[in-house]
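@channel sequence for tomorrow's demo:
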Amino acid sequence: MGETLGRRMAIARAAQKKTLQGVADEMDKAKSTISQWENDIYQPSLKDIARLASVLNVNQNWLAFGDKQ
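structure tokens (generated this afternoon):
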């Protein structure tokens, strides 16, 4: 089984040395929302994926689908 969107979020967040709270603040979301996305409890909207990719400085397709750049 491949990596999930949540796992890719966690990898990207760790690479950027950002906390859940830091990402939440930049996204104007609750920390619990970011945690739920990372734990694959809920999926972010396409709009949120685009913003999250920008915040985490990663390719949107990689974040959403695991596609290599």
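heads up for whoever presents: The first helix runs from residue 5 to 15.
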